[in-house]
Specification:
Helix content is 13%, strand content 16%. By secondary structure, it is an alpha+beta fold. Strand 2 and strand 3 form a beta hairpin.
């Protein structure tokens, strides 16, 4: 048998304890259990139970870890590190012990807590200063009870105190906005600019206090400024003669200067009144007739009144005397005097019945009542007979209205006016040798189209696919509206053109449509005319928004140019032949270029893609109304047209761009 070491027994060494050692170990375990584990270490009925007054921590962990403890004993204590709470196991779940925590996290105290400290129950740290404690009902604020403060509705403050406080800060610029003033709302008072007072009220108030001594300084008097009146203090002068209207100037001072007005007193005192009777003064006529005039006297177109009837042959005659003495044969009255007298009373309703009129008897004139007839042809001198009744007999003169209504289908010379029959020319083009379906300008109002090519070395085809060497008739139409289309193609990679003259009544906006390759920008086809493509082709910009039947949005883009009048004049001038033997250029050739004399002429214009525009904001004519008038268009009284505001019908896929001149080569 190996020697046994009682301090470190090994292997199967038996442990032998004496009774004293066993009793000491038992006492030691009981003591340790009672001090460390809060339950007795005995084998009696109290074994495993917590001892009263003892607290021990069974476990420290997170909420999850505590809840996952396997079969904790009833009364076990745990410290939750997530919440800082102490928890006790009641045999089925963990219950929080009060609301006491050991961490600095926010906590809510529930229930009633009574503090009876010997000093202040709380100490507020620096982080809590100035922070609001919600729901706190303190007994004092700054050592004062609530009664020391005014309530927000001022119910505990007497009115006089409030009034004194307001009066201490009211007045100008205080910003005080009161509801009433002396018991009146603001509407009861006039604004400083009188904007709430009627003009008549202001006028009546002014009239109550105006007049002398009022100090009122008006801008106008009866619509006149003060400068229009003479001032009483003599500080201004008349600007024209003053008509006194037959009234006197009274209380006038005697004159001093030569140009001063003379008073009656001054005139009388100067002896003027006696000069007429003074024999020694020949410059005046005496009122007693003691002297005579030495020359003719002009009375200045004034009368001699209160004159006695004449006695002697040389006495002045009064009107009464002359009226009674006029000779009945007028032998002493000149012819001109008689004529003037007659002319004063002749004319309509005078009753004067002359024998001649401009030396002619009445029989030389046509009477208005139709009682006589012309005796020869009458030359109307280029003037019209107006207000003529429509004829009824075969030899009656015919009115224009009657002639228009009776005209046949044959157009008389001069009867076709610009308003009734006006034609325009438009064209289409393509550089495609496989052919493009193009809408011809004018549509149903058009005549037979004409073809041309930019070079005499190649052909342009109507209804023929030169790449496939087969005919393609131009009647192909994919839309639901009637339209005049042409299948146009050109060989050799050059451009072919077709132009059509058509009847129009519009021309408000000039249209250039270009079909371009999206990738390369090459112009595949074009359209130019003074009318929109829908004119004569359905008369509807929705059904016929553009002239290109082969348009593919994946491959193509459509560009519209509306040139100005000046640009259009310039383009048309560039198309005119400059010599015999030179062909007229199509307007679209200015975009394609052309061959001439074996040389290539580059395009003169291109699309300016730097700017985006819109359709013109105006009405344009898109068709002529079809009505029940079966007469030819040129014989109708008035051709009714269809107009629309075209800017409302611009398709989203159509780009509008300005025109750009790129080549200024002088054409020879």
């Amino acid at each position: 048998m190996a020697t046994w070491n009682k301090n470190t027994p090994t292997g199967n060494d038996p442990v032998r304890l004496g009774d004293d050692e066993i009793r000491n170990m038992k006492d030691y375990l009981e003591d340790a259990l009672s001090r460390e584990h809060t339950f007795p270490g005995t084998y009696g009925d109290d074994a495993g139970k917590h001892l009263p007054g003892r607290v021990g921590v069974l476990f420290v962990g997170t909420t999850t870890e505590i809840n996952n403890l396997s079969s904790p004993p009833e009364g076990a204590i745990a410290l939750d590190t997530d919440t800082g709470e102490l928890k006790r196991y009641d045999g089925s779940s963990w219950q929080v012990i009060g609301q006491i925590v050991y961490t600095g996290t926010d906590q809510t105290v529930t229930g009633t807590k009574t503090f009876n400290p010997s000093g202040a129950p709380f100490a507020i740290g620096s982080n809590a200063e100035g922070q609001l404690v919600s729901g706190l009902n303190a007994d004092l604020v700054d050592g004062q009870h609530a009664s020391a403060f005014a309530k927000t509705d001022l119910s505990n403050v007497d009115d006089s105190t409030v009034l004194n406080k307001v009066k201490s800060v009211d007045g100008a610029d205080s910003g005080l906005d009161a509801d009433l003033l002396d018991g009146q709302h603001a509407s009861a008072f006039a604004k400083t600019d009188l904007s709430n007072v009627s003009d008549s009220t202001v006028l009546n108030k002014v009239k109550n206090v105006d007049g002398s001594g009022s100090g009122l300084d008006a801008d106008l008097v009866d619509g006149q400024h003060a400068s229009a009146f003479l001032r009483r203090d003599g500080s201004n002068s008349p600007t024209a003669n003053v008509n006194w209207g037959g009234y006197k100037i009274t209380n006038l001072a005697d004159p001093v200067n030569a140009q001063d007005a003379a008073t009656k007193n001054y005139v009388d005192s100067q002896g003027v009144g006696v000069h007429g009777n003074a024999a020694h003064d020949p410059d005046f006529l005496a009122v007693d007739g003691s002297n005579s005039p030495s020359a003719d006297i002009s009375w200045g177109n004034h009368k001699i009144t209160n004159l006695a009837d004449p006695v002697n042959a040389q006495d002045a005659a009064t009107k009464a005397y002359a009226d009674t003495k006029a000779d009945t044969d007028l032998s002493n009255v000149s012819d001109s005097t008689v004529l003037n007298k007659v002319k004063n009373v002749d004319g309509a309703d005078s009753g004067l019945d002359a024998d001649l009129l401009d030396g002619q008897h009445a029989s030389a004139f046509l009477r208005r009542d139709g009682s006589n007839s012309p005796s020869a042809n009458i030359n109307w001198g280029g003037y019209r007979i107006t207000n003529l009744a429509d004829p009824s007999d075969a030899q009656d003169a015919a009115t224009k209205a009657y002639v228009d209504s009776q005209a046949g289908t044959t157009i008389p010379d001069g009867s076709v006016t610009q308003a009734k029959l006006k034609t325009s020319v438009g064209s289409v083009s393509t550089t495609s040798d496989s052919g493009e379906d193009l809408t011809l300008p004018g549509g149903e109002y058009g005549f037979y189209p004409q073809l041309k090519n930019e070079s005499s070395s190649y052909a342009a085809y109507w209804g023929y696919d030169s790449s496939a060497s087969q005919a393609r008739w131009a009647a192909r139409q994919y839309g639901t509206s009637y339209a005049t289309r042409i299948q146009l193609s050109a060989g050799g990679g050059i451009a072919g053109y077709a132009q059509q003259r058509y009847v129009t009544s519009s021309g408000e906006v000039f249209w250039i449509f270009l079909l371009r390759d999206k990738q390369t920008g090459r112009i595949i086809a074009g359209y130019q005319a003074p009318d929109h493509p829908c004119f004569g082709n359905g008369n509807d910009p929705v059904l016929v928004p553009h002239p290109f039947g082969n348009y593919d949005p994946e491959k193509h883009e459509i560009v519209v140019i509306n040139p100005t009048i000046e640009q259009l004049k310039e383009m048309k001038a560039l198309c005119r032949p400059r010599r015999i033997g030179q062909p007229k250029r199509d307007l679209l050739e200015l975009f394609h270029g052309w061959d001439e004399g074996g040389k290539r002429a580059d395009p003169l214009y291109e699309v300016d893609d730097r700017y985006e525009l819109e359709y013109p904001h105006r009405e344009i004519t898109i068709g002529i109304v079809e009505d029940e008038d079966e007469r030819p268009l040129w014989l109708r009284q008035e051709a009714k047209i269809i107009k629309v505001p075209i800017h409302k019908y611009q398709p989203e896929f159509v780009k509008v761009r300005p025109l750009k001149r790129i080549n200024y080569t002088i054409l020879r």
